[in-house]
Amino acid sequence: MKKLRTIKGTHDILPNEIHKWKELESIVSQTCEQFGYQEIRNPIFEETGLFSRSVGEETDIVTKEMYSWEDVDGTSLTLRPELTASVVRSYIQHNLGTISPIQRFYYSGPLFRRERPQKGRQRQFHQFGVEAFGSNNPEQDVEIIAIAWKILSLCGLANDTTLNLNSIGSKECRNNYRKALKNYIYPYIKDFSKTSQHRFETNPLRILDTKSEKEQEILNDAPKISDYHNETDSTHFESLKEFLKDIDLPFSINHKLVRGLDYYTGTVFEFNSVNLGAQDALLGGGRYNRLVETLGGKPTPGIGFAAGMERFLIAMEQSNFNIKKSNPDIYFICADKKAISRSIEISSRLRSLNFKVVSDTLRRSMKSQLREANKLKVKYALIIGEDEIRNSTIILKNLTKGTQKTIPQSELKNFFEDLTI
Ligand code: HAM
Q1: What residues flank ligand 1, with Cβ below 6 Å?
Q2: CA of 126 to the centre of ligand 1 (A)
Q3: Nearest-angstrom CA–CA distance, 287 and 310
Q4: Atom of ligand 1 nearest to the CA of 85
Q5: Which segments in the chain show pLDDT lower than 70?
Q6: What is the pLDDT of residues 218-253, one digit of tens each?
């Protein structure tokens, strides 16, 4: 029979790595809540139109990476390739803007893009992210970037990352810049790849994203979008830069940063890691001041970011960030069949004192149970056998010190109550 395996580009997250995920999730939720962000959870699949209308018909995600299918009633559905669109849909659907003129959310969960799998790039991957609705002021931008920076710092990644910052300006700015960029590229267009030639017609700004060194060299002398900023664009961007300096958050201006989703307006940013190789974007985001309106809501400014959790974990491992595994506290060794019911009872009492207690259900020899206890890096083993039942005692073994003593069962509660493991 053919062996059943995970689908290409998807991974099981096994128990021996789950502690790292939990630690990252806990850093994310604690930090976001410190900034007053509330968690939101959206469905894994949505109507396809939500993504084509927001992410953009001509983007890589929509043209080739979405997992879409037709439901029995003929509706086209898609496994979410990103979460901003879902959060915006939710914001509009539940009139969340009426609760307060400023709404702040955070999220984490799985996403799906049919990309070519490689290190740091999967077909099912996980993101955490934040979105804030209602404020068009630069202090909102700096708040979003500060959350990202705090999470990166708590994960030990601040020294290995660079914040790349740009502003793709207002609609008018982008229209003028698009023309200028096309005029600049036109004489060289034969030297550009098929993809860039296609983008030249459909979305010329995305050419700035090209991975080709030859194309990048030509683009080094291209006009810069900042030269096309109007006064509002420049004032906003200058204030953001000042605010970042105020909190000592280092950044570099990257005139070619445009991001691969169509909904962005104004500020865009990415945190890139020096340790990640080709897939070096740990986290990306920006403003999307027209998206709520595009999806049928009242005009509302928005800004957010999302980060790849797999990439975070790879980078944390590379920077030797130590995440402790949480081991059980006590291993209960039942050395005689007659002691089973007593051991179930004592284990249950210890669990109600909040200890993590593991007991053997295979009726193995005492020796192999002790071996298992050591393998689990448990601090205490409790041993109960025929003698101990008869005398109402229990053996308490400290596995780190290698000491043991026999105590009355009635004293066990006091011993563990006084203990902080
Ligand atoms: P994005 O740049 O498409 O933005 O994705 C954000 C992050 O998700 C990337 O920087 C990367 O770390 C991770 N990522 C993306 N694709 C993959 C993949 N195939 N495998 C592993 N990790 C991946 C967004 O998704 C926007 N929604 C961000 C945003 C929120 N903008 C405003 N608000």
Answers
A1: 82-84, 113, 115, 120-122, 125, 127, 129, 131, 261, 281-286, 304-308, 310-311
A2: 9
A3: 24
A4: 27
A5: 420-421
A6: 999 999 999 999 999 999 999 999 999 999 999 999
